[in-house]
Amino acid sequence: MDNMVEKGVVDFSDIEVEKENVLPLRKGRSAKRLVNVLKQRDSELEVTRASFERRLETELSTLDDPLCLFLEYMDWLHIAYPQGGNSKGSNMLHVMERCLMHCKALECYTNDPRYLTLWLNYIELFYRDSYYESKDIFVFLYRNKIGGQLSMFYEEFSNLLCEMNRYNEACYILNDGIQRGAAPTDRLRSKFNETKLQLDESTISLPNNHLNIFEDSGQPTILNRNRNDILNASNMKIRHSQSTTVETPIYKDNQEFTLTNSIHLDAQANFELKASRNKENKRSVGVLKPESNVGTIPQFDDEGPVTTSKTKFIFNDDLGRNGPIYYINTIVGQKSEKIDCNIKLLHAKTNEEYSVEQLLALSRNVYKKSLKRSNESDLAPIKRSRINHI
Amino acid sequence: MPIDSISLKGSTRTITEFFEYSINSILYQRGIYPPEDFSRVKKYDLTLLKTHDDELKDYIRRILIQVHKWLLGGKCNKLVLCIINKDEGDTVERWSFDVTHYKSENSSEQSNEEPESIDSEVTKNQIRALIRQITASMTFLPELANEGNYTFNVLAYTDAYAKVPLDWADSDSKEVENAEVVQFKSFSTNDHKVGLQVSYRF
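YS: structure for the whole thing
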């Protein structure tokens, strides 16, 4: 027993302070290596990373088994970044996607368990929070026949479908795997029977004559109202208002997504990387570096009259039509006066005024007169001045 | 020395109690028994999980009653919790509690480095830190795949002359091959020092 102490026992206190930064791995971590990594500086990590990148660049085209190099790289990333593949620094997503794309072109990996495992890890690591995106990737794999001869693929796919309560489709997938002779068949068969049992159980609990009720209650609600409520309400409205003769037809999407129909479509579908899938969800923001001065952030002051040139337009669907603009003339001691005229157009700047014709010329870009200041502008709000037409 | 014997009893009780809670914690954390079998209890100002499965409770109690007797007689210096794969029968993890007796009867030198009396509150804090470490160790320990496929064994290292009841059998040390070893914190009472290390396969 005592020789174990001599072998170099790791003191937990070295790890404990970082325990929240360590993502537990399914296969565990080497405590010794963990301690080493936690002591390591970023620059040292970068050196190793650079060496991997260099090897990828130079060796990749010459290797018999390029996946091996990628796997080595990713194993190192797992150890070097104990925060997990999702952490920003590790760049795991990029490396993984590069590997998946590179090996996809190579036929020898189509039924390689290591390659399939990598895909499964990829789904688990980056798409864990979305059933639908995970499903999309599985469908993509199915169409491209990646892992088509491996039971693991069908098992994982059906697991996902079971989680989504789609036992029927899960059975279909498993059966399909059996038909295609995926190995090991026995495991797949027992999984199929198991799922079939779950499917039967899930249908027993719903008697047939009540099925519709359950289906309805499962429908999505809009503003806490069921779809049928809204349908009824709009029907009622139409009946009340006699003027409408034609009932507006309301189209209902009866055709739910069915995996069994869509899965065989477009086999050459392109796979979108996570970054491009999420491109609409990201605002392009420059990275702020710590301790850098951004300068003054522009402030918008609300003072001064809002001029038409400065205001931002809000585009409505009714194109080109602005609502009428009123000028409200407030005189102290009297009731305020509402004038149906956009006086601000006439007095675009202080001490300047335009006539309606001038404005017309301005809007057509033919107004070329050097502006003369009018002395009586204060007295008369609308005053005719000379216009030059060209 | 009547005062000492009282202190020894108290110290042994503290240790046995610690064994009970740490064994329960490990069995829960490592998923050896399903989580439904455990319920929350407050101990050492921590919320810990303790089994309410009668069979398991009885099994642990039987072990600890015997260990308590050995400890009291200074006959036991190590208690090991082995997690064993049911299929292959090999040990996958080995949690080893080392017990040092400060007042060993046969070695008078040890009494020289005997520490000053330790406040029970200090002991409690140390135990708390150690149990926290057990929980935190899940960050590097591997997931034990196939839940329900593991069982545990308790080994007690005793003095060659210790009385061993019939339901205890001799055993090999059940080492983990190619193991990584991590040393945890330790705690001390007036009479004992208890350390813990885990060896696991990576």
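YS: worth flagging: Chain B has three helices and seven strands.
IM: good catch. Also Chain B has a mean pLDDT of 84.
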